[in-house]
Amino acid sequence: ITAMDSNHQSNYKLNKTEKKFLRKQIKARHTLLRHEGIETVSYATQSLVVANGGLGNGVSRNQLLPVLETCGPVDALLMPPNKPYSFVSYKTAEESKKAYVTLNGKEIVDDLGQKIILYFNFVEKAQWKELGLQALPPGLMVVEEIISSEDEKMLLESINWTEDTGNQNVQKSLKHRRVKHFGYEFHYENNNVDRGKPLPGGLPDICDSILEKWLKEGHIKHKPDQLTVNQYEPGHGELHDIFDSSLCFCLSFKVVMDFKHPDGITVPVMLPRRSLLVMTGESRYLWTHGITPRKFDTVQASKGHKSGIITSDVGDLTLSKRGIRTSFTFRKVRQTPCNCSYPLVCDSQMKATPPSFPESKREASQLEQEYVHRVYEEIAGHFSSTRHTPWPHVVEFLKALPRGSLVADVGCGNGKYLGINKELYMIGCDRSQSLVDICRERHFQAFVCDALAVPIRGGACDACVSIAVIHHFATAERRVAALQELVRLLRPGGKALVYVWAMEQEYNKKKSKYLRENRMSQGKEEEGSSDTPGPELLVEQVPDTGHKEPACQMPSISDFQEGGRNSREVTNSKLPVHTNRTSFHSQDVLVPWHLKGNPGKDKPAEPFGPGGSHDPSPVFHRFYHVFREGELEAACQTLSNVRVLRSYYDQGNWCVILEK
């Protein structure tokens, strides 16, 4: 209990305001512990955690520091990026105690005029686990002061937003922005232009001298012939997919652009006023880039820092308020097919299109063969190297079984659970011969089979486990059939534990480990667990092409009966490709696996089907059906001779324990 709590206890007649404040302070303490693992202490120290006083809820360093300094010299103010709290350390514990007593419950106003109340608690030490040093994406370079302030002003004035909307430059109003096209109209629905319909007038005259200068200086190899001008409202951004040119030009104010690798790692890059971002190689083709919609950017507080990565130095971060932004996007229209060195992510070089959602048993089986069975056979070695830490609740289930129990692990993978409890007789099976071979190398009993037809006598097993398997079946009927096969193996009274990947990767306001571990290491996609405003000029940006499907209703038992949700009542439904370490927007998705090391095959995989590739890190795609809340339990309730003992959520997975 803290010093302030003790004072309240001694003065037991608290007024209504004091009681409300005490409840809020205790709630803040519990929230920090539960969601962030920050432990507060009951005695005065030199350090405090300031709940609500963080960059994540709009409090800048310039706002908070003067408030804290009223109680004494501040030794350190640590403000983690995107977090609603900060840490402050004073020279002495007396100064820290003064801040605790006088500033607790203090109301401040953020840059948007919103009132924020600060809550203080003592911590043993003000510290933050910083991320390792990040590097700019390969091929990325920032050139500062690329044009003069006079040229900047003329560029801004060259665009007349008051013209008739029927103007030849195809002026349009989209959500939160205004758009003009020059040279060709850029079609956002397919990220392309109609080469046969050039717009009259070409590019604005002011652009000609600037582009000629860039050509002479070697920043571009070809003079662009298409320009799109966007004017964005404050707080809104732009998202881009793979692009074909290499320059980003920022005017009038600094802005943070996020670069994202296919594995989910994000690198924030500061673009100063009048700077040029040069993108070549991997940064140009493999990484996506965008400006995240938000009212503030997290930036370096030190005045000497201008361009480059926004580091994780929590002692040097603050907020920068955004204003209206105008972007100039230059493109060179390609007249011949693309032959870049990144065919796995190049729309024009992909040998095939993404598969459609299956509409029959035959199509479902073919989809699983190509995007589950074949993939795991190819990636078995790398996959196994990332599967070494058993999940605690699965271990708990296995260790609670009676000594001598016969247990089947259906979809055992590399045998991670086969040796957990030496007092059990465990046998594993998997569809992948390569994974079964790894099990045998580890001296486990395992064999190859399909989870829909396990060659074990019915009623022979005391228990079964199916961990991260059933979500690979492509239709509701096949998923129910896999569950029924588990039940068939059990003796009366036998139990089965089933885990499937959840669509809800943020549950009860807490992100799963899958979302929290936004890291660079490839291939470690454990299912739910794992070890005056002015413009910027962008050359060849492409808008967001993410798949965001409307939410469907909570599943019911009838959805899984014959004639229910066989596939989905859709036609020509292409399966979206999921971005690793992000939330799901579709239930049926292809999840990338970036193979590391020697794949062991002569032909690495194409993203959407077989074919040759010379990419040093081939990308495979696995089919998943991620389950919504209640869906797994509803499927189990359609089974015969079984009851659900427990249904729960575990780090991004939906789980059930069944009893026959």
Automatic annotation (TrEMBL):
Single GO MF annotation: transition metal ion binding
Oligomeric and partner information: Interacts with TRMT112.
Subcellular location, record wording: Cytoplasm; Nucleus
Primary location recorded for the protein, binned into one broad class: cytoplasm
Cofactor(s) of this protein: Fe(2+)
EC number: 2.1.1.229
Keywords, ordered alphabetically: Acetylation, Cytoplasm, Iron, Metal-binding, Methyltransferase, Multifunctional enzyme, Nucleus, RNA-binding, S-adenosyl-L-methionine, Transferase, Zinc
InterPro entries per the UniProt record, alphabetical: AlkB_hom8_N (IPR015095), AlkB_tRNA_MeTrf/Diox (IPR051422), ALKBH8_RRM (IPR034256), Methyltransf_11 (IPR013216), Nucleotide-bd_a/b_plait_sf (IPR012677), RBD_domain_sf (IPR035979), RRM_dom (IPR000504), SAM-dependent_MTases_sf (IPR029063)
Gene Ontology CC terms, in alphabetical order: cytoplasm; nucleus
Residue ranges with Basic and acidic residues bias: 518-527
Protein's name in the database: tRNA (carboxymethyluridine(34)-5-O)-methyltransferase ALKBH8
Name of the coding gene: ALKBH8
An individual GO BP term: tRNA wobble uridine modification
Functional description taken from the UniProt entry: Catalyzes the methylation of 5-carboxymethyl uridine to 5-methylcarboxymethyl uridine at the wobble position of the anticodon loop in tRNA via its methyltransferase domain. Catalyzes the last step in the formation of 5-methylcarboxymethyl uridine at the wobble position of the anticodon loop in target tRNA. Has a preference for tRNA(Arg) and tRNA(Glu), and does not bind tRNA(Lys).
Organism ancestry: Eukaryota, Metazoa, Chordata, Craniata, Vertebrata
Protein family (similarity comment): Belongs to the alkB family.
Lineage top rank: taxon: Eukaryota
Residue stretches making up the RRM domain: 46-123
Region annotated Disordered, chain positions: 518-570
Catalytic activity: 5-(carboxymethyl)uridine(34) in tRNA + S-adenosyl-L-methionine = 5-(2-methoxy-2-oxoethyl)uridine(34) in tRNA + S-adenosyl-L-homocysteine
